[in-house]
Amino acid sequence: MKPEVVLRVLKEFRDMEPSCVKGEVLGSMTTEPPWFAVEAFKIFINTNLNDTKLFRGAYSLERDCIREISKLFDGSGYGFLTYSGTESNITALYILRELRG
After folding, report:
1. Number of domains present in the structure of the chain
2. Alpha-carbon gap, residue 81 to 66, rounded angstroms
3. Rounded to two decimals, what is the model's pTM?
4. What pLDDT score does 92 carry?
5. Is there a single domain that holds both residue 43 and residue 24?
6. Residue 80 gets which letter from DSSP?
7. What whole-number distance in Å separates Cα of residue 67 and Cα of residue 71?
8. Which of 17, 58, 64, 70 has the largest CB neighbor count within 10 A?
9. End-to-end Cα separation, the chain, in angstroms
10. CA geometry: angle at 29 spanning 40 and 17, to 5°?
11. Are 78 and 66 in contact (CB under 8 A)?
12. Domain that holds residue 88
């Protein structure tokens, strides 16, 4: 399929969904991100935080974020960023299991 066709079909499916922007959804995790968050995502869209040797800039940014977030909670500065709530929850359960034995 041509990319234009794929995008058209995807848009048709998306148009079936309610819109947070139009006020059709209240209290959902799927609110519209700010424009600059979308642009920031685009800058790093082809990176992989799991490959810290290859993507050193993304890894360095992650470390800076963790350090700053840790200051808010008097934390130790350890951790990593994830892409979603599900990934965060699964990771937290894994870490808890490993720490508790």
Report:
1. 2
2. 8
3. 0.66
4. 92
5. no
6. -
7. 7
8. 58
9. 50
10. 95
11. yes
12. 33-101
CA distance to 17, 82, 88, per residue, from 27 (Å): 15, 22, 20
Give 60's contacts (C-beta < 8 A, 6+ positions apart): none
7 and 38 belong to one structural domain: no
Number of C-beta neighbours around residue 33 at 10 A: 11
Q: CA-CA distance, 87 to 101, in Å (whole number)? A: 21
Instruction: Specify whether the CB–CB gap between 17 and 11 falls below 8 A.
Output: no
DSSP state of 88: H
Helices and strands per DSSP (H, E), number in the chain = 4, 0
Residues 6+ apart with CB under 8 A from 85: 29
Q: Residue holding tokens 């940014």?
A: 61
d(CA 101, CA 96): 8
Q: Do 45 and 22 belong to one domain? A: no
Regions of the chain with pLDDT less than 70: 28
